[in-house]
Structure prediction request, 372 residues.
Amino acid sequence: MRFTRVIGHSTLKAKLIGNVREGRVPHAQFFLGPRGSGVLPLALGYARYLLCTDRGLADACGKCPSCVQLDKLTHPDLHLIFPIFLFEKGKTCDPLVPEWRALVLKEPYLDDALWREEQEGGENKQLRMGVDIAAEIQRKLSLKAYSGGWKVMLIWLPEFVDTAAANKLLKILEEPEPGTAILMAGHNPELMLPTILSRVQLVKVSALHEEDLVQALLARHPDLRPEEARICAVRSGGDLLEAMDLAEKNEEELFVLFRDWMRASYALKMPEAVELAERFARMGRERQKGFMRYGLHLVRMSLLQAAGAPDLVRAEGQEQEFIRRFAAMLSAHRAEGLRRELETAHQHLERNANPKVLFMDLSYGMYRLLRA
Ligand SMILES: [Zn+2]
Prediction:
C-alpha cells in the first residue's frame, strides 16, 4: 500500500511524509481512527515510505527492491502482528502471516470481523493477543535489520492485547531501540492500558470525507451511479466498509428486481408484472433511471458471455449465474431489441413518463422480444 493509494487524508499524509523527511520518526505511533477510515492502509503507507530506498517528495518510489517486496508485504524488516484465536498455548502470529497478508492485500480496509471470517470456523471465536505474541514482538525486535535500514513492527488492532501481554508490551515501549518504528493501527483506545497510550504518539485519523468516499466507491463499483454512491457515502458516516456494504445491497436489490421482471415478462405472468411495476413506481425517478442503466449493463455482460468472452464479464454469485443463463437465450437480434427498449425507457423517464405505465409497456415489449 502506497500513500497514493490510501483514500483521502491528504493533509495527514503530507504531514507524515514531512516528518520522515525531516528525520522525525517517533519510536511508537498509534494510527487511531474509526472503522473503515483507513488506519491500517495509512500505517502500511507509512511503513513503505520508511523502508523505501528511493523516497520521493510525495510517496515511496514503488520500484526499489524494498517497494517490490512491500507490494506483497514480504519485506523482511516489516514485522506483522495481529490478533489470533488463542485456543492453544504458544500460538503466535507467524504461521498465520501468509493468510493475514493475503487478506490485507485483497482488502486493506478490513476489520476484525473480516479477519475472523477468513479463518476457518471463526465466527464464534474470540480474537486475542496474548503473552506469546508479546514475546514474539520482543523476539522480532531483537533481530538485526535485514536491509540495514529501519525495522518496522506493525501491530494491527492493539486493543486485542490481553493484560499479561499488555504489561510485556509496555516494557517494550519503555525501552526504545534505535532504528525501530512501532506502528499500531486500531479503533478502540478505551480498551487499552492508559500507560501504553501514554507511550505512543497518537496519529488521529478522521472518518473519510464524503467526496473522497464517493470517488472510492465509484472506483470499486463502476456500475454505481454518482447519486447512489453519494447516498451510500453519507449513510455510512465515512466508513468505507459500511459504504461498500450499502452499495452491494443496492446492486442486489436492482438485480433481484431485474431478474424477477425478466422471468415474469418471459412467462407473461401479468399479476407479477403489475406487482413489480408498483415496486418500480415507488423507487423514485433517479433510481428508476438507474434500474434501466443496470438492465443495459446486464444485457451487455450477457452479450460478452454469449460471445465467448466470459473473462470480461464483471459479475459474481447469482448475478453471474443469471448472466450465464440469460446469455444462452439471447441472440444478437434479441439483445439489440432489449438494448433499444431499455434506452428508450430511460429517455422517457427523463421526460417524466408515468413509471407504472412505462414499466407495463416494457413488460409486453420484453415478452415479444424474448419469445420472438
Ligand atoms: Zn521504493
Notes: The first strand starts at residue 28 and ends at 32.
